[in-house]
Structure formats: structure tokens, C-alpha cells
Write a structure and sequence with these properties.
- The protein has 8 helices and 4 strands.
- It is mainly α.
- It has a two-stranded antiparallel sheet. The protein has a two-stranded antiparallel ribbon with strand order 2-3.
- A hairpin with a 2-residue loop joins strand 2 and strand 3.
- Helix 1 packs antiparallel against helix 2, helix 1 runs parallel beside helix 7 and helix 3 packs across helix 5.
- The two termini are about 35 Å apart.
Length: about 270
């Protein structure tokens, strides 16, 4: 999917001058190298590809931060939190008051660990992609699809746990539906449920991938025009888009978390 999108967008720009920059590097290859995932350490076991890619490395870094360093940051002996501790505590209470409690009520604390983990994972991955030489793991549809799949499983589990198997089955069949319409309604409900979580994955992927595509495309314009006087415009544009990406990183982490909470809340509702 990434390759198709890149070739469709970049070929328009790349074809205007043959795509070659002074060093002989194709602009399309330059952009694709920076926004696409690629293998950094190949591993093959019994014909199974277990290679370490750039996005996998970013995920490991984010996981290490969340598992090892985040607890050390928030561990404070002071009664009044300061610095990073105060910022993280503010985020936790903000998510609790604006997402968890309004959508999940008294059941919120049961699902708070997943929602908070998802938020900090997505936010850290988004911001890490802005570091020079880094990669945005959430710009990979496989990563966002995995996150959406986790939400999907938790929604189904929470529904069964709260309403039982019979109540779970009734959630796909509104009361009062004629028997002849039941198969169609059931298929529609299942497709709608799958579509919601698919949109959850695509929304995060498209926003993060699109932002980084714009950043490196603007850098490519410098090599496209071969003119030092045109370079300030792409550079200023890049700075503006990069600052905008910080805001988008926060917004997308928040949107994914609140939609996950909404879906879980709907699953807990007996009239879903």
C-alpha cells in the first residue's frame, strides 16, 4: 500500500526532471527510503522471515521506554510532582476525566491500563518518528492494524464478560426484527463492527504516514529544482509541517484512545 501511494504521488513530481538529483539519487527512492519500512538486520529461520526492520526497531525502543524508563520517570518521592512526572500525571488524569470515566463509567478502571498503554505507545511512536534518523512505526499499516485488532478483541471480550454469550449474540440482532430480515441484519452488524475497527487502523496510519510523506517530499523539492534560492521555502515549510506533526501526534493518540473507549463502552452496553 505504501509503495503504491508513493509512486502515485511522487511520480508526478519526479517525472518533471527525470527524478535525478546532483548525486544521482532518484528523488522517489530518497523519499521511499525515508518513509517506508526496510530491513536493517535480515534473519531467516526455517524459511521464515524474522528480519528486524526499521519499524520493528522503533517499536522495541518505544516498548523499552514504556516498560523500563517510564516507571523510573514517574517514580518520585516528592508529594508534589515536578517536571516530567507532573506532565505525565496530568496526561493520565486528563485521559481519565475526558475518556475513561465518560465512556466507561465504573468499569473504566478495568480497561484503563490498556487505554493508557495504547495512548502512550502511539504518542511515543508518533514523536519518535520526528527524530532525525528515526521512523514512525504508526505510519505502518501493519502496526496500526495490530493496535486496532487489540481493541477489537477487548471489545468482544468486554461484551461477553458483561452480557454473557446470549447477550453478546443479541447485540447483533436488534429486537423486533422480522425473521426474514435477520440474516441480512446480522451480516450488516458484523460488517459495521469490522468497518469501525478497520477505520480506526486506517485513520492513524494515513495521518502519520501522510505527514512524513509531506516532510520528505518538501525536502526532495530542493533537489528537484537545483536552485539554492528556492531552498528556503521548502525548509520553512518543513519546519512548519514538523511542528504541526507534533500536534497531530498528540491528536491522533487521543483520537485512537477515545474511539477505543467508545467501542468498549458500546460493547458493555446491553442495548448495543
Amino acid at each position: 500500500m505504501k509503495s503504491f501511494m508513493l509512486k502515485s504521488i511522487i511520480d508526478v513530481v519526479d517525472g518533471q526532471n527525470g527524478g535525478a538529483e546532483p548525486g544521482g539519487t532518484n528523488i522517489q527512492e530518497f523519499i521511499m527510503h525515508n518513509v517506508s519500512d526496510h530491513v536493517i538486520y535480515p534473519i531467516h529461520i526455517f524459511n521464515v522471515d524474522l528480519s528486524i526492520t526499521k519499524d520493528v526497531l522503533m517499536i522495541w525502543i518505544v516498548a523499552a521506554f514504556l516498560i523500563l524508563f517510564l516507571p523510573l520517570i514517574v517514580r518520585s518521592k516528592s508529594l508534589v510532582p515536578k517536571g516530567p512526572v507532573n506532565f505525565i500525571e496530568w496526561i493520565v488524569f486528563f485521559i481519565q476525566d475526558t475518556i475513561i470515566k465518560p465512556n466507561l463509567g465504573e468499569d473504566g478502571y478495568r480497561y484503563a491500563p490498556y487505554l493508557l498503554t495504547a495512548f502512550f505507545f502511539i504518542l511515543s511512536s508518533n514523536l519518535l518518528g520526528l527524530v532525525p534518523g528515526g521512523a514512525v512505526a504508526t505510519g505502518n499499516i501493519s502496526v496500526t492494524a495490530s493496535l486496532a485488532l487489540l481493541t477489537f478483541f477487548i471489545v468482544q471480550f468486554s461484551n461477553v464478560r458483561k452480557n454473557g454469550i446470549k447477550g453478546y449474540a443479541k447485540s447483533f440482532m436488534p429486537s423486533g426484527v422480522p425473521k426474514i430480515m435477520m440474516p441480512l441484519i446480522f451480516i450488516t452488524e458484523v460488517l459495521g463492527m469490522v468497518a469501525k475497527h478497520l477505520a480506526l487502523a486506517i485513520r492513524l496510519f494515513a495521518n502519520m504516514f501522510g505527514g512524513h510523506l509531506v516532510i520528505f517530499t518538501m525536502i526532495g523539492l530542493i533537489f528537484l529544482f537545483h536552485n539554492i534560492f528556492i531552498s528556503p521555502l521548502p525548509i520553512v515549510g518543513d519546519i512548519f509541517v514538523s511542528l504541526l506533526e507534533v500536534l497531530i501526534a498528540l491528536i491522533q493518540a487521543y483520537i485512537f484512545t477515545i474511539l477505543s473507549a467508545v467501542f468498549i463502552g458500546l460493547g458493555l452496553s446491553s442495548d448495543h
